[in-house]
Amino acid sequence: MPVLRDPVRLIPLLFLAAIAAGTALLSLPLATTDGSSAPLITALFTATSAVAVTGLIVVDTPTYWSGFGQAVILILFQIGGLGIMTAATLLGLMVGRGFGLRDRMAIQVERNRLEVSDAQSVLRLILAITIVVESIVAAILTTRLMTAYDESFVFALWHGLFHAVSAFNNAGFSTYSDSVMGFQQDPVMLVPIMLAVILTALGFPVMQDLRANRLRYRRWTLHTKITVTGTLILLSGGFLATAVMEWSNPETLGPMGFGTKLLNSAFHSVMPRTAGFNSLDVGAFREETLVVNYVLMFIGGGSAGTAGGIKVTTFFVLLAIVLSEVLRRRDASMFGRRFGRSVERQALTVAMLALLFILSATMYIASVTNLPLQDVLFEATSAFATVGLSTGVTAQMPPSAQFVLAMLMFIGRVGTITAATALALGKHDRPYRYPEENPIVG
C-alpha cells in the first residue's frame, strides 16, 4: 500500500491506532475504580494525552482509574515515547536520502550527520538508554518511598516505576492526586525525575553525538551545540524567573526555606519545557510567571526526543535570523556555521503553524467557556507543546473544548514531526522563477 511506504502518512496513522486501542481499553469497566465505563471523551482524552506523552487530565488519575487503567496509561505513554523517539530519529535520518554524493559527503564532514545505515545503532542506543535510565530512576524512587514514606514494597515499586517511566517519556502523569507537590522538600524524589526529563528532552541525535564525542566540544554537530547551549540558557532563565517572581508568593515559594525555594524553582524551570510534573500549584502562579511559562512551553525541548514545542533549534534559528537582519548581515549563523535557506523557511513554517493552532484553539475554547483567557491560553499552549502543566481548568471544559485540546496534543506531538519531515523530503524546485518585486515590510 502507498501509505505504508510513506512514513509521513504512516506515523500519524500508527499513533491514531494506538490512541484508538487505548480509548477502547480505558472504556472498559475494568479500567475505573467504581467499575463503570468511562465516558468516551474521558477515555479518548486520557489515551491521547498518554500516547502524545502530554499529561493533561480531565479526571484524577489515582482515584478515577483502577490499577488496570493506570497500567494501560503507563503502557500508552511508554509506547508513545518510544514510538515518537524512534519515528522522529529515523525520519530525521531519512531526510538525507534525496542528496547527491557530493552533498552527502559535505554534510557528513560539516555536521557529522548520521546516515540511514546507522538506524540499527540508533535504535539500540534508544533501547539501552530507555532501560538503563528508567531502571535507575525507578530504583531510587522505590527505595526512597519505602525508607522515607513507609510505603510497602509493592506500592513503592509501582509508584516508583510509574514516575520513572513517566519522567523518561516526559509524560507528566502521576499516581498522586497532587502530582509531586507532596515531595516539595525532598530532593531525592525531585532530582532524579528532573534529570530524567532533561536527558530525554535533549533528543537522541544529541545523545548519539555526545556518546561519540563526549566533551570534545569542537567535534559536536551544530545541532548538538545549539540544543545543549539553548537548553542551558532556557533552564537558567526559567530558574531565575520562577525564583524571582514566586519568591514571596504565599501560595507557592513563599512559605518555603531558602534551599527548598531553590530546589522547586529549578524543578519548575525544567517542567514547562516538556514534562508536566508540578511541585508547585500552577494555578496559584502570578500572571508574570504564567507569561514566562507560555514562552518556555512554546519553545519546548530538543528535536527527535520526547519533548514538545517548536523545539530549541527552531527557536534559536529564528533568533539568529532576526539578529542577522538587525545587524544587516548576509547570512544567519551560529557557532561559525550559516543556516541554509531551507532550514530558515522550515523554522518559520513550524513556528507560524504552531501559533496558528494555539490561537485558533484558544479562541474556540474561550468562545464556549467562561474561563479566564490566561487559563485557556495556558491549557492550549500546554496541550500543543505536549507539556501537561495545567492551571486546573481542563476538567471544567465542555466535551467539545476537551476534544479540541486532544486534537492539539496529537497535532503538537505527531504533526510537527511529520510536517518538518515533509518539508525536508518534499523539496521540489520549480523549473522557473517569478520576477522579483519587494513589498513594503514593517
Automatic annotation (TrEMBL):
UniProt keyword annotations, A-Z: Cell membrane, Ion transport, Membrane, Transmembrane, Transmembrane helix, Transport
GO molecular function: monoatomic cation transmembrane transporter activity
TM spans (from-to): 12-32, 38-59, 71-95, 122-141, 188-206, 226-245, 294-327, 347-366, 403-425
Topology in the lipid bilayer: Multi-pass membrane protein
Major location category of this protein: membrane
Keyword set includes Cytoplasm: no
Superkingdom of origin: Bacteria
GO biological process annotation, one example: metal ion transport
Pfam families named in the record: TrkH (PF02386)
Compartments, as annotated in UniProt: Cell membrane
Keyword Transmembrane helix attached: yes
GO cellular component, one term: plasma membrane
Xref: InterPro entries: Cat_transpt
PANTHER family reported in the protein's UniProt record: KTR SYSTEM POTASSIUM UPTAKE PROTEIN B, TRK SYSTEM POTASSIUM UPTAKE PROTEIN TRKG-RELATED
Name of the molecule in the record: TrkH family potassium uptake protein
